[in-house]
Amino acid sequence: MNTMTAGMWKEMVECFNKASMDENVRSIVLSGRGKLYTAGLDLVEAASSLAPSGNDVAREAFRMYKFIGLAQESCSAIEKCMKPVITAVHNGCLGGGMDVISACDIRLCDKDAYFSVKEVDVGLAADMGSLQRLPKILGNDSLIRDLCFTGRKMKSDEAKSCGLVSTVYEDKEKMMEGAFELAELIATKSPVAIQSIKVSLNYGRNHSVNSGLEHIRSWNAAMLQTEDIMKSAQALMMKKTPADVKYSKL
Prior knowledge:
Radius of gyration: 20 Å
Oligomer: single chain
Shape: globular
Strand content: 5-15%
Low-confidence stretches: none
């Protein structure tokens, strides 16, 4: 069921931090094995972690603050990763899974996929990023409140129509083929361009248009000096594609 545990959160942070720094990684596909993409939080482990310890209230609050911070960082590490992350969702994506996919750059699913901000049904508000990132992704305040207040299932066709996912595939096999084809295509592009695009998109989402323009202006004052531009231009003039260019690692 791919439930989420504290151990998994730690591994996610380590994995995406390592991938971000690995110059051999150009793009990433994140998917789930088994029956579901993820069933969300492991309720058995959570019950143990959330059980009152009898400690001083302030100290207990600090313990929980650290626990929640680890959970949040597991998703933020995806967003902070310098490499584009494509997530491929099959069947159910519940609870914490929504936090994960909302931190990814591109979201794909199969026709049997369904999505649910399930935390409300276990008596809490989602705290790993769904409530902060979904409004930026969907841009429909009424729909977001509907999903979060009810915990209802959003099926693949609705997910496509509202912009949560960009492509719906017939089945998981075709979805995974599509995900890897997309990742391979991105990997052929200039890594300077790709990583700069992600940095600028993430910055622009949380700042005004003017601030975003000033940011990319300063950023590209350095990046426009890359050798990748000349290599790409020469390839285009020779009627070749970025796949034919040997870009230096980054």
